[in-house]
Amino acid sequence: MKRVLCVCLGNICRSPLAEGVLKSKAQEMNLPLRVASAGTLGFHVGSGADKRSVAIGKKYNVDISNHQVQKFSLEHFDLYDIILVMDRMNFRDVASLARNESDLKKISLYLEDEEVSDPYTGPDEGFETLYIILEGHAEHWVRRALQ
Ligand code: 4NP
Question: Among 25, 59, 91, 93, which residue has the least CB neighbours within 10 Å?
Answer without folding.
Answer: 59
